Amino acid sequence: MAQKLDIKQAKKAIAALYKYNKNKAESDMLNNDEDNAIYVVIHTHKIMNKAENKLKQIKLPLSPFPADLEVCYLTKDDEKKIEEKVKNSPIKKVININSLKTIYKSYESKRKLAASYNLFVADDRVAPLIPSLLGKAFRNKSRIPVTMKHSGSLKNNIQNVINSTTVKLNNGLTSRILIGNFAMSEKNLLKNYEAAMPEIIEITAHEFDQVEMFGIQSENSPFLPIHTSLPKKEKTDDDKTAVKKEDEKASQKAVKDKTKKVTKRAVSTRSKK
């Protein structure tokens, strides 16, 4: 798989992306965390999955999120009790499921909530209810909450989420997956790329032969390809007819050859008599 991931080309693409970002930042004075995000973009030859709201999680060597990450935690538990447990952690907001149903009922309130935090996490008891409660406001901002188990250490569980990325299954050809940000070194971004790609390919394409291309991209950069392949040639009706004729010819030839052998054997037997 390492050979197929083309690490040498990945290094070149990463270097080019960082150079592009540096030049653009100097001219545009970029300071938005979302602008600093770096993604793998993968395109398949054909649609391989059905759309799902559930996210597939991939563990990374280093967190792809910025150091000043702010997390909103959606839970069934009492908000004040959880807030006490998560002091000095990236969780900056705790929302009970009942509060979500009442306080954040309007589209505008949901839209503002979606724009207020980098990452949303839902405990596994309320996660099935979240997509219908948050709706389009969150889908449009790509803020679908990551499901997290509620049992065990809350701080450890949230840290596991922060050290991971997610893949959303869609019914399209292209997927975009967060693997880092420009605060990371190029070397560390490459580590995340190497760790994530085998699972990204498995989830989105199922097998490498179904991958048409993949590369890296930021919010403001062009797509930088790492791997491309030619589309698979689909067999046309003419191709199928040609194959059928070849099979028929081969079959007829086999019958003729067998007939010749039988005739020759019969003649040989009569001659001996």
From TrEMBL:
A molecular function GO annotation: RNA binding
Superkingdom to which the source organism belongs: Eukaryota
Renumbered residue ranges of the record's region Disordered: 225-273
InterPro entries given in the database record: eL8/uL1-like, Ribosomal_uL1-like, Ribosomal_uL1/biogenesis, Ribosomal_uL1_3-a/b-sand
Bias type Basic and acidic residues, positions: 231-257
Name recorded for this polypeptide: Ribosomal protein L1
Source organism phylogeny: Eukaryota, Fungi, Fungi incertae sedis, Mucoromycota, Mucoromycotina
Gene: PARPA_03213.1 scaffold 7241
